[in-house]
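Illustration: DNA methylase adenine-specific domain-containing protein.
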Amino acid sequence: MEESQDITVNAGDIARLASVGRAAVSNWRRRHDDFPQPVGGTASSPLFSLPEIAAWLRRNGKSFEVSLGDLVWQRLRTSADDLRLGDLVGRVGAFLLFLQREPAAWREHGTQSLTGLAAATTDLPGHPDLRLDDLALVRLVAELAAERGPLETFEFLCERYVEAHSRQLSVTRDDVAALMSRLADPDGGTVLDPACGVGTLLLHTGSPLGQEINETNALLAAVRLLLRGAGARIVAGDSLREDGLAGELADAVVCDPPFNERAWGYEELTGDPRWEYGLPPRGESELAWVQHCLAHVRPGGLVAILMPAAAAGRRPGKRIRGNLLRTGALRAVVTLGPGGPDLWMLRRPDGGRPPSQLLMMDAGEDLSAVEAAWRAYTRDPEAELSGDCRTVRIIDLLDDEVDLSPARHRPQQGGPDFLRDFTGTLDRFRDITATLPEGPPALELLAERQDLPTTTVGELAKAGLISILQAPAKMSAEEGPLPVLTADDTALGASPSGWTTLDPALVMVRPGDVVTTALGAVRVITRSGAALGPQLTLYRVDPQRLDPDFLAGFLRSADATRVHSSSSRLDVRRARVPMLPLADQRKYGTAFRELFALEDRVRETTALGETLIRLGFDGLVDGHLRPCDQGV
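Result:
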């Protein structure tokens, strides 16, 4: 800990190190006179000495862990204020890229080899001298890279950086980013993101190209991509005002542009040749980004761009929307969640006959059907589609509003289909609500909180009570004879839906196994016969010493009480589990099992209720239903 003498931590950092909530840290400060005094920061966000906090936690019997990663991150936070923190993280990234490219130089000459850093990182944007002056920090980073690898080390630091600046940084959801890349670039060509931020959309592509207005974010994006071995090129600058890639055409474009930007360059860009479909109104910056993307994709190439829901119907943009429809450039509008954003799929015209129909879809929170609907549409744009998507005749959209909101064009159901759907949903809703328990399991309310002796999942694994298993790297769950339990199956409590080929490295699930997803869903397996899928972790317990339902309940609780809910990763090895006799574990396990079952039933009831409500409104409006005295 010698390197940590000057490192400071805030209340959130303390909570993470001690695996408690922020409220617990506030209580410690109020109730304990010997709690360390702030050494910096502000009254609303004080900073504390890490060695003093560690000594206090140890002195008061509070379990805590300062990993090497925590040590590196806290030293970074201590070495720079919030305005310069991103630049410092970028310099660490440059050093990690140097380590990856020149490992022999570092092993032989240590910090003296940093004179070659600039020559080894010439493909990074920004200032050519990205060296770190803090040699103690350099050694800590090198030690962490030796433990985790340069890429994982930098991803860890980027994740912490994004958490610390969550209000200033807008990062595309990982599942949305992966979907956009699959839709726009199925063949693995050159992919451009003209507003690439920290590079999230380009992580899923093979030949990335990007531009980013913020120099620090451009550096972070370049490091993330280059550490993956991609031949990436990232340019710093304002894509609309100062197009750093003018004249270049990519095979595909993906983009999550800034929304509702009024100062995007309207005055100076009035006569810009990119406005092939019309001059974007001052308040419609998103339509400027749409045309910028189309100008940078080859003829016939695809563009996947996220748009605010309002952009589909705002009156000032109707002329451009109409032109995008008439030329066949706009192919699909998909709503990705309540209130948006919408995903617009475009194809740069190449002289072929434009389609007569536009794909429209409201995906809600479930993105799984979007790709299948898009593939079906691209195979035959004139065919009628089934399910929650539909094709709408473009001529019917070219009215006085040119409103492309999927909610405005939801398909009307015919009489027989509507009757079947409505009565079936109503019957299922009645059946499931009739079987709902009257309340949760019997739980005793204690007058005072009961503190139980605890250990961690990591310690249980060391003691042999738990074996932690994962699927083989690069495992496919798309085709083959063997069923696969996927992350979605685990979250929904559904049967295995994936398929894979036989492989001796596969992990086969057994009854009593506890399976978790990266986002915190937890299940106790009741049936065998399926392989463990990607992005899942399996905890196989010794049933003579540990009850699986007991473990599952506390794993679920560990996720629900995470301090940093924006983090996509949960370090389950640090999750705390009470040390109780097996008989007591089973009592807890029974209660947890009943709560899990209640949660599944409530979730299913909610989904059926929402469907029933939607069908009720549709039926009353469309004339398939009418009110009656007795009710339905």
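Reading the tokens back as a structure: The first helix runs from residue 11 to 18.
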